[in-house]
Design a protein that fits this description.
Distance between the termini: 7 Å
Radius of gyration: 16 Å
Largest sheet: none
Number of helices: 7
Structural class: mainly alpha
Helix content: over 70%
């Protein structure tokens, strides 16, 4: 992999974050942010492909498919701003929490790929909490804001907040490493 693809992945992740934040103003920005994030996921796939071809391919396929579905939902106005759609929630999980789970695991198992084990552990934990959030949200009817069982609310919000903080730390650290990467 060339330095250009690593840097492009880092730049795409920065744009993905900024566009995802701009979602507050217009949901269409989330679609473009998800597409930018797909480029970041592809860069990670290329880094870890030689370490574990099958798992890195799974991470790329699920992550990019989730990003594409999320982009489709937002760009075709199928996106519900109440975030009560289970399909939408799973697309967001696949795009934003599955890549840290898979590539965090790979970074932990293969520190020779240029990413420290601590980064891998942070991504892995962020992905696990994101997975727990998805499970609790689905049990609650798919609406993480208003679950059909109010007793699930603390679990849904707790796993979301912990997973999101860990994912953002993983993302920021990974962006820095991609931007500095020398192959």
């Amino acid at each position: 992999m060339t330095n250009n693809l690593s840097r492009l992945g880092g730049i795409a992740a920065i744009f993905g974050i900024l566009l995802s934040i701009a979602y507050m103003f217009n949901p269409v920005f989330l679609g473009f942010g998800a597409l930018a994030f797909a480029v970041f996921i592809f860069a990670l796939y290329r880094i870890f492909n030689s370490e574990s071809a099958g798992l890195s391919l799974a991470g790329a396929v699920v992550g990019i498919a989730g990003a594409a579905l999320l982009a489709f939902l937002t760009l075709t106005s199928q996106f519900q701003t109440t975030q009560s759609n289970a399909t939408q929630g799973m697309a967001m999980w696949a795009a934003f929490f599955f890549p840290p789970l898979v590539f965090g695991y790979l970074a932990y198992r293969h520190p020779g790929a240029g990413m420290p084990r601590t980064l891998g552990l942070i991504g892995l934990l962020g992905g696990v909490f994101g997975l727990l959030n998805a499970i609790f949200s689905l049990i609650g009817g798919g609406d993480w804001m208003n679950p059909n069982n109010p007793a699930l609310s603390p679990f849904i919000m707790g796993t979301y907040l912990i997973g999101m903080v860990l994912m953002l730390v993983w993302l920021a650290w990974t962006i820095i490493l991609l931007m500095r990467r020398k192959d």
